[in-house]
Design brief:
The radius of gyration is 20 Å and the shape is elongated. The longest helix has 14 residues. The strands form two sheets. Strands 7-6-5-9-8-10 form a six-stranded parallel sheet. A four-stranded mixed sheet has the order 1-4-2-3. It is of the alpha/beta class and 246 residues long. It folds into two domains: 86 residues, Ribosomal protein L30/S12 (60s Ribosomal Protein L30, Chain: A, 2-Layer Sandwich); 142 residues, SPOUT methyltransferase, trefoil knot domain (Alpha/beta knot, 3-Layer(aba) Sandwich). Helix 6 packs parallel to helix 10. It is 32% helix and 21% strand. It has ten helices and ten strands. The N and C termini lie far apart (53 Å).
């Protein structure tokens, strides 16, 4: 049974203001919740259908709420809710994350699905640090968390004044542009930063000033009407190329 106060809390967490107030975020679905339960994140509470309850080993019973499918639909953001929804405490982070190795910098990524997928890609390609401009979508947005598929627990994300942060990093900064050097013919290093720009406008003029190496993913198809690549797709190609020489 879910109380009115619990319902109000969970529904409110769809808004960033409420997430910051309560220091909580929503995770949904068997895959995502299972991954996060096995991470270092602190569980606040979990709402489950009976069929998922038996999978909750070593969880304090006070944090478990067995609910009905109808109740799950009321709190879920999914068209087809998947057995479980959990609330986790937003982890405390250091003021700055490590500058070591390959870093992703996101300049005003607005689509939650893109951000979540990029974090998942960072996890896959061994990128531990992701820098986000202050206007980038909130990493604890439920849609972002869903798209990370649990990778949020293994990748450090820092929101910052991206211009100043990049200015203070003493390593090559590669930027993805429609016009730049062919990535397949470019000498790359994994001791660097890759900047991915806004879905519609690309990398801002301010950040462009700091780019030391402008790169592009060339188009081989002939259709001129083809739009530029989705930000997450472009990120996957670039990360693959940067890792190729290792």
């Amino acid at each position: 049974m879910i109380s009115k106060n619990q319902l109000k809390l969970i529904q409110g967490l769809n808004q960033k203001k409420s997430r910051n107030k309560h220091n909580l975020f929503i995770a949904e679905g068997v895959k995502v919740v299972s991954e996060l339960l096995n991470s270092n994140l602190n569980l606040h509470s979990v709402y489950v259908l009976t069929e998922f309850y038996t999978k909750l080993n070593n969880i304090n019973s006070d944090k478990i709420n067995i609910i009905t499918e109808l109740e799950l639909k009321k709190i879920s953001n999914l068209k087809a809710p998947n057995q479980v929804l959990a609330l986790f405490n937003i982890p405390k982070t250091d003021d700055k994350i490590s500058n070591d190795g390959l870093i992703l910098a996101l300049d005003d990524i607005r689509d939650p699905g893109n951000l979540g997928t990029i974090i998942r890609l960072a996890d896959w390609f061994g990128v531990k640090s992701v820098l986000c401009s202050s206007n980038t979508v909130d990493v604890f947005n439920p849609k972002v968390i869903m798209a990370t598929m649990g990778s949020i627990s293994r990748v450090s994300v820092e929101y910052c004044d991206l211009y100043q942060r990049l200015k203070d990093i003493n390593k090559p900064i590669y930027g993805a542009f429609l016009e730049g050097d062919n990535i397949y013919k470019t000498q790359t290093t994994t001791n660097s930063v890759i900047v991915i720009g806004n879905e519609s406008n690309g990398i801002s003029e301010e950040i462009s000033e700091l780019i030391t190496n402008k790169i592009t993913i060339p188009q081989f198809g002939e259709a001129q009407e083809t739009e530029s690549l989705n930000a997450a797709i472009a990120t996957s190609i670039l990360l693959s190329e940067f890792r190729r020489g290792e």
